[in-house]
Write a structure and sequence with these properties.
The complex is a heterodimer of chains A (765) and B (155).
Chain A lengths: L15 H6 L13 E8 L5 E7 L1 H5 L3 E6 L6 E2 L6 E2 L5 E2 L5 E7 L2 H10 L1 E6 L6 H4 L28 E9 L2 H7 L2 E9 L11 E6 L5 E5 L4 H12 L6 E5 L15 H10 L4 E5 L2 H7 L2 E2 L2 E9 L5 E13 L5 H10 L9 E10 L5 E2 L6 H19 L3 H8 L18 H12 L9 E10 L9 E7 L5 E5 L8 H13 L6 E3 L18 H28 L6 E3 L3 E4 L6 E3 H6 L14 E6 L21 E11 L6 E11 L6 H20 L5 E2 L2 E2 L19 E5 L21 H13 L10 H11 L1
Chain B lengths: L3 E8 L2 E8 L4 H8 L18 E4 L2 E4 L12 E3 L12 H8 L9 H14 L5 H8 L9 H13 L1
Parallel strand pairs in B: 1-5
Antiparallel strand pairs in B: 1-2, 3-4, 3-5
Classes of the chains: A alpha+beta (765), B alpha+beta (155).
Bound molecules: FE2/S2 (inorganic) cluster (2 copies).
One FE2/S2 (inorganic) cluster (FES) binds next to loops of chain B.
Chain lengths: 765, 155
């Protein structure tokens, strides 16, 4: 590969100046026009029939313009399974579900009116544990499951609460266990967590007098929002415009479509007005996606030499009240169910189960944190029982080039062993440092979870002065997409990054991108942009060749001018090329330069419904985390002495931003390892603010030693692959492995709060 | 509508007089009335620090202060740090160290850091941790933030 100029350098973030000066616009910072404010009335029971909604008092409240209930618009929405009501219709399925929405002239009036709405419920028995909920006699939460529209790669069981049963069968599981010298079986539990981006969910909607719907949204994926709204409200797509702003953190909770539909029917009643809804912190925590809890049973068979011969994984996921998106997490965890290891015989059953808890949905890691927690903990158990070094067990079974995943997909471009070795060396693996000190390592893998045809596209306009506009449909939520994508464009066009303009999307003007999720944008959008740049370059050469009367193959472009390699005196500036007419005659040559590029994966397939075999991964990203802890036996407090993280980025497009992602994911992982657990009491979310739901802050964040490994991704743009989600995955098991090393106590769940650790120490005595 | 009270104050160096609603928070007043939207709202109950501004030299969560309390005081918001288009050294340091990702916590974080450097020109890691512990960054830019604040203090 030719020497890279821009890719691989830490250029300054495109959004840097705006973000440090407070001028970066998030949606709440934009003035859009005359405004009405919306607030939701939320259910006070977790499962119940709506007997009566009395709106009279609320309607009479000063400032109230309109109130709508589920009866007024029984539309449903969903990314994979269309099961979700915007407003509860006839029954509520979780505590806090919106049952009515008020529009008023001030936020205060809307909030006051909400208090005046009276709702009568007939409570139904609720189910809050998915293991109970999947039993045949459990109260059914979605009576209509059999009639819901669904993408045909999911397998619900109508008449039950099972929204998806993903099955995977690889090799011969009986043979695998027969070959094993040792069989280990354990249960694991991962609780719900919340994304808590500092910017909550927000949307503003205008129904124009001409019938055009404009949506400003914190959504991660404007094109998917447009597509889902078009379907749900039966509006042609060209009549919906979704405008993105900077997003104040997403982490999955702003994927799909969420709050926009709540205000669309209100906006329709008041054409020309902007109807805005802003979730407060409590609403954001309780009324948007929550990471699904996972109850799992994992059984592995292993030979004396440490080789794992069989793996049987049963996963029961708490999908919550609506599983429109969650069904795919369950699928992704299923098809990835061997983690970063090459295991020949696998039997996996992964169930997405409705409960009356908050809605389950995507979170950074998309099922991998939860599923690989079990794998990475069980490897420790294997090592212990075989009296082997757990690092060695990982090395023996870890995927290499040519290994197959649980789904039977062959992985290329892998150096998992280097990731493991890097963190092991960093933390001084093998050296025991003291009585209550311990070290732990865990590994990870993840591919983007996306449909096999999730597409991407890009347009590049070259200006008359040789500067360029890159137009794409990906969103900027902190990951640094604008910068990385500009660098790819710069590299391909040979135009400096500071001569490239790039903005967040607006579906009326920017081309299609499926979703900004799954760490896929660097790869998908990066490929589209590279292709668009190549297309633009082709046009530049075409015009230059005509202009200079020189064959194209003799020409080269240095970012400013095209010249003949045979005679550098034969040259045309980019401005002359952009002017596009022959100087002597004034004859036109070809129009303004507009490069177009698109991308749709060609290496992915659907999976066999019975065996789950196929190619679900666009690319696979590996990594590892190493931790050294010291535990205070009196208090159960875990002190992180060392934290090392390695991720294989293929080619770091911008090393500084790669490290940012690596740090961010590691810190989020550490936060879940030590503090985070959403607590429910019969569906009522108990910790709904930052005091009760603690997350990492600067004072408890240790120094992280970070390592970018670069095993180029053959088909990624300049060898790059996405890494945003991955660093989170191995942190919790690495911490638990270290605590286990320190205390000799096994933890099959987290967070490892002082209380939990202290209790375990006490019980072990 | 609600009762209003006249207040006088300075904001980012300029004298201002306004009528404010009695129950309005300083955060809402800054954003909705002064149109200084760099100050962010993340919780409105004093838990996240996104709304941090400097009031008479001290960092405060503007969601916990009433707008009427601004009377007679000096307010500095993130918009006040840039002088004649020139970034403050702490803003520059945040850029150099990539001490933000989504940028939503950033104005509050920078204001807390600014206030720290006013009172402790050469802070230790511990000083930084303590001063910024009320500013949550879910993107996890803490390590870069620590480095940025330290490097700004050295200049
Ligand atoms: S908005 Fe003021 S502290 Fe969170
Ligand atoms: S940069 Fe996103 S919350 Fe701090």
């Amino acid at each position: 590969m030719a020497e890279l100029k821009t890719v691989g350098t830490s250029v300054q973030r495109k959004d840097a100046i705006e973000k440090v000066t407070g001028s970066a616009q998030f949606i709440e910072d934009r003035y859009m026009g005359p405004m009405l404010y919306a607030k939701m009335k939320k259910s006070t029971v977790a499962h119940g029939i709506i007997k009566k909604i009395d709106l009279k008092k609320a309607q009479a409240h000063p400032g109230v313009k309109a109130i709508l209930t589920g009866k007024d618009y029984p539309n449903k929405i969903g990314l994979y399974l269309i099961d979700r009501d915007f407003l509860a219709v006839e029954k509520v399925r979780y505590w806090g579900e919106p049952v009515a929405v008020v529009a008023a002239v001030t936020e205060k009036a809307a909030a006051e009116a909400v208090e005046l709405i009276e709702v009568e419920y007939e409570e139904l028995p609720g189910v809050f544990d998915p293991r109970e909920s999947m039993k045949p006699n459990a109260p059914v939460i979605h009576e209509d499951l059999g009639n819901y529209e669904i993408v045909p790669i999911f397998y619900p069981k109508p008449g039950t609460n099972i929204a998806n049963h993903f099955k995977l069968r690889k090799g011969d599981i009986d043979k695998g266990f027969a070959e094993a010298d040792l069989v280990i079986e354990k249960e694991y539990y991962v609780p719900q967590m919340q994304h808590v981006p500092i910017e909550t969910h927000k949307a503003a909607v205008q129904w124009g007098h001409d019938g055009k719907l404009t949506v400003w949204s914190t959504a991660q994926s404007p094109n998917v929002v447009r597509q889902l709204l078009a379907k749900s409200f039966d509006i042609p797509m060209h009549k919906i415009r979704v405008i993105s702003s900077y997003i104040g953190g997403g982490f999955g909770c702003k994927a799909g479509a969420s709050v926009e539909g709540l205000v669309i029917p209100l906006a329709k009643m008041f054409p020309g007005y902007i109807v805005r809804i802003i979730f407060n912190r409590e609403e954001d925590m309780q009324g948007t996606f929550t990471r699904q809890a996972l109850f799992s049973k994992l059984k592995t068979g292993v030979r004396k030499d440490g080789r794992i011969t069989a793996l049987q994984y049963e996963m029961i996921w708490d999908g919550g009240a609506y599983t429109e998106y969650g069904v795919n997490i369950v699928r992704a965890a299923g098809y990835s169910s061997t983690g970063a290891y090459d295991i020949p015989n696998v039997k996996t059953d992964s169930y997405c189960v409705y409960t009356n808890n908050s809605i389950g949905g995507p979170v950074r890691g998309f099922g991998m944190c939860e599923m690989q927690w079990g794998i990475e903990r069980q490897i420790e158990e294997i090592a212990k029982q075989l009296d082997m070094d757990p690092l060695e067990v990982r090395m023996i079974n870890g995927m290499k080039k040519g290994s197959t995943t649980a789904a039977g997909q062959v992985v290329q471009d892998v150096d998992y062993h280097k990731c493991l070795k890097t963190v092991a060396d960093q933390i001084g693996w093998g050296k025991k440092e003291g009585k209550y000190r311990g070290k732990g390592i865990a590994g990870l893998v993840k591919c983007p979870a996306q449909p096999s045809n999730a597409a991407s596209s890009a347009i590049i306009r070259i200006n008359e002065d040789g500067t360029a506009h890159v137009m794409i449909g990906a969103t900027e939520m902190g990951q640094g997409m604008l910068t990385a994508i500009s660098q790819i464009a710069s590299e391909a066009l040979n135009i400096p990054v500071d001569k490239i303009d790039i903005k967040v999307p607006d579906t009326d003007f920017t081309p299609y991108e499926w979703q900004s999720v799954g760490s896929r944008i660097t790869y998908t959008c990066g490929t589209s942009v590279k292709r668009a740049a190549e297309d633009a370059l082709g046009q530049i050469y075409l015009i230059a060749s005509d202009l200079l009367e020189t064959p194209q193959e003799d020409l080269t472009f240095d970012g400013k001018k095209v010249y003949s390699t045979k005679d550098p005196g034969i040259k045309a500036t980019i401005r002359e090329i952009a002017d596009s007419c022959k100087k002597c005659t004034g004859e036109g040559i070809a129009g303004p330069i507009i490069g177009r590029g698109s991308f749709v994966p060609t290496n992915m397939t659907n999976l066999d419904p019975e065996t789950g075999q196929g190619n679900p991964g666009l690319f696979y990203c590996f990594g590892a985390t190493g931790v050294e802890v010291e535990v205070d036996p009196e208090t159960g407090v875990i002190k992180i002495l060392q934290l090392a993280a390695a991720i294989d980025a293929g080619q770091a497009v911008n090393p500084q931003l790669c490290i940012s992602q690596l740090h961010g994911g590691t810190i989020m992982g550490l936060s879940t390892a030590l503090y985070e657990e959403v607590k429910f009491d019969k569906g009522i979310m108990l910790n709904r603010n930052f005091t009760d739901y603690k997350i990492s802050s600067i004072d408890n964040t240790p120094h992280i030693d970070s390592f970018i490994i670069e095993t180029p991704e053959t088909n990624g743009p300049y060898g790059a692959r996405g890494i945003g989600e991955q660093p989170m995955i191995a942190v919790a098991p690495a911490v638990a492995n270290a605590v286990c090393d320190a205390l000799g106590i096994e933890f099959n769940t987290f967070p490892l709060t002082p209380e939990r650790v202290w209790k375990a120490i006490k019980d072990s005595k | 509508m609600s009762e209003k009270i006249a207040i006088n104050f300075t904001v980012n160096g300029d004298n201002e007089s306004r009528d404010v609603e009695v129950g309005q928070t300083l955060m809402k007043f800054i954003r909705d009335d002064l149109h200084l939207t760099g100050t962010k709202s993340g919780c409105e109950i004093g838990e996240c620090g996104a709304c941090t501004v400097i009031l008479d030299g001290k960092p405060v969560n503007s969601c916990l202060v009433l707008a009427v309390e601004l009377d007679g005081k000096e307010l500095v918001t993130i918009e006040g740090l840039t002088k004649n288009g020139e970034l403050d050294r702490i803003q520059k340091a945040f850029i150099d160290h990539a001490a933000f990702q989504c940028g939503y916590c950033t104005p509050g974080m920078i204001m807390s850091a600014r206030a720290l450097l006013e009172r402790t020109p050469e802070p230790t890691d511990e000083d930084i941790n303590e001063a910024l512990s009320g500013n949550l960054c879910r993107c996890g830019a803490y390590q870069e933030i620590r480095e940025a604040v330290k490097s700004a203090s050295k200049k």
